[in-house]
Design brief:
Rossmann fold, Serine Threonine Protein Phosphatase 5, Tetratricopeptide repeat, 5-stranded parallel beta sheet, 5% strand
């Protein structure tokens, strides 16, 4: 019988009746130090003050965060001692809930109702398992793999009850240390008769890491046919399919896994990224919407998930050639921003107002109105009081992307430089930054700069027609780049100054005014604003002289 003597116990459940019942049950078994919390937030406050020996989390804590999210948060923040036992308790046998809970690896999962004897037996078994394996896990945590391997072998030789479990751990250590042949020789006999769950997943993972994708697929498919609810197997199977070039199968498997479990932002992230790669935009949108919803109800709400969802809407809209349909898709941006004002908009560390304006600009850009988009982007950044170094990471990222969209490379440089100093944890954001910068951005800049610099050279040589042709080519690549627009305007001014008045003057004046109209009513950077004023004054003098 499990001894509750001297054990500190935390019970987290939103039902007071269960508190009373469980307290009586535990007290009758000898427990004395029992504390309660009715919500995840209250439990976090208590866990920050006291370290317990036993944690009993009810899965469903009413509105807000659930028991699995709480357990995961406490583990991540090292608020649960290594010796402690953690149980998830629920009265719901829903498979999705069970799978979600077990994926977080609590010490056990208990269904209501249960008897004192049942709970005691489960606590006894969990304690024995933890005590037997504690030194192994400690060695692994300290990355002392040689010691961990030695301890595993000792347990395998001396303790038949935990022999299979220790072999699983040993194989995982060999995979971690890339001793693949040793791991394979250990795992194959374990799955020969039937596909044991942990050894099969480890073997599939091993084959995947060695790029033996067909072998990985074979092992993992066999396991799934035998135990169809093992979500980690689906995850590695999808990766093996992707590695093997079977993208449709990979996406189907990932979607199935994401829809089977609750609260897995990481799993939906994999779906969204693969769907985007495959241009399966409906699936991509659905996954980013799920991530945004899950984030809002988690311990880790992050405005980057709002940005990812909105970016996926804009990406989807741009693929639609019919402008009427494109407008309909883009309406979702405005409705989402309105709703988000009451969610992410409450985050004082997030510049929601500026973010809102940038996404209104993104909509304009997607509707082929780059001039309006440019004005809104520059006006938004000009009205932002913080320096770039004080921008929150999501607003900083979207500012960079917006400037790159309109081809303002020089203005984007300080934003990119600051972003490179930040620790970007979100995988979608990492990939988006990599996609829009790096080699792709360098190629864009090189192509644009070649034409622009050649135009400047021709202008210096007083070869104004050739200069004009070069600036036109530069603007064909980046239609609203401020520097190129000013360069072209300067050519028009010089051509007007160098030639006597004639009919062509009207055409040149009109083209110059058109370039100015693009830049008017925009909060341009200081050096560009000064140059624009000078050129406008020169044009005014030319018109006056005529």
């Amino acid at each position: 019988m499990f001894s509750y003597r001297d054990k500190k116990i935390l019970i987290v459940d939103d039902q007071k009746a269960f508190h009373i019942m469980l307290k009586a049950m535990l007290a009758n078994q000898g427990a004395e130090d029992i504390k309660f919390a009715e919500s995840a937030e209250q439990a976090v406050k208590i866990a920050n003050l006291i370290k317990f020996d036993i944690y009993l989390f009810d899965y469903n804590l009413g509105a807000g965060k659930n028991g699995v999210q709480l357990f995961d948060y406490l583990k991540r923040n090292q608020l649960i001692p290594s010796h402690a036992l953690c149980f998830i308790i629920t009265g719901d046998s829903n498979k999705r809930m069970v799978l979600t809970a077990m994926e977080k690896s609590p010490d056990d999962y208990v269904m209501k109702p249960f008897s004192p004897v049942q709970l005691s037996n489960r606590l006894t078994a969990a304690t024995q398992r933890k005590e037997i394996l504690q030194d192994i896990y400690q060695a692994i945590e300290e990355q002392n793999y040689e010691l961990a391997i030695s301890l595993c072998n000792q347990k395998i030789d001396s303790d038949s009850k935990y022999r299979i479990l220790c072999k699983n751990i040993l194989a995982d250590i060999y995979i971690q240390t890339q001793q693949f042949t040793v791991a394979e020789n250990l795992l194959i006999p374990m799955v020969k008769l039937r596909p044991l769950v942990h050894p099969s997943i480890s073997l599939g993972k091993l084959y995947f890491q060695q790029k033996q994708y067909q072998k990985a697929i074979q092992v993992l498919m066999r396991l799934i046919r035998y135990a169809p609810m093992q979500m980690e197997a689906y995850q590695w199977l999808a990766r093996a399919y992707k590695g093997d070039g079977q993208l449709d199968n990979a996406l189907n498997i990932l979607v199935q896994a994401a829809n089977t479990t609750h609260n897995s932002i990481e799993r939906h992230q994999e779906v969204a990224l693969l769907a985007n790669e495959m241009e399966e935009y409906i699936v991509m949108l659905s996954s980013y919407a799920s991530i945004l919803h899950l984030s809002r109800n988690s311990f880790y709400p992050d405005p980057c998930h709002l940005a990812n969802y909105l970016r996926s809407i804009v990406t989807f809209a741009k693929q639609e050639g019919d402008m009427t349909k494109r407008k309909e898709i883009l309406k979702k941006v405005s409705s989402t921003l309105y709703q988000s004002r009451f969610e992410e908009g409450k985050n004082k560390d997030f510049n929601f107002d500026g973010f809102d304006q940038l996404y209104q600009a993104n909509v304009l850009f997607a509707l082929n109105e780059p001039l309006k988009a440019k004005r809104r982007i520059f006006n938004t950044l000009n009205s932002t009081k913080e320096t770039i170094t004080d921008f929150d990471t999501t607003f900083l990222t979207e500012s960079l992307f917006s400037l790159l969209d309109i081809g303002e490379f020089e203005e984007a440089n300080p934003f990119l430089a600051e972003l490179e100093k930040r620790n970007i944890e979100d995988q979608t954001t990492q990939i988006s930054i990599k996609k829009l910068t790096g080699e792709l951005l360098n190629a864009r800049i090189d192509s644009f700069t070649n034409h622009n610099q050649m135009g400047i050279k021709f202008f210096s040589d007083k070869r104004y027609q050739q200069a004009l042709e070069c600036f036109d080519k530069a603007l064909a690549l980046e239609p609203v780049n401020t520097g190129a627009l000013l360069n072209r305007s300067q050519v028009f001014i010089k051509m007007l100054q160098q030639t006597p008045p004639h009919d062509d003057h009207k055409s040149l004046i009109k083209q110059c005014q058109n370039s100015f109209s693009v830049l008017n009513n925009t909060h341009l950077p200081v050096q560009f604003a000064k140059r624009l004023i000078i050129l406008q004054q020169e044009l005014k003098e030319i018109k006056g002289a005529a």
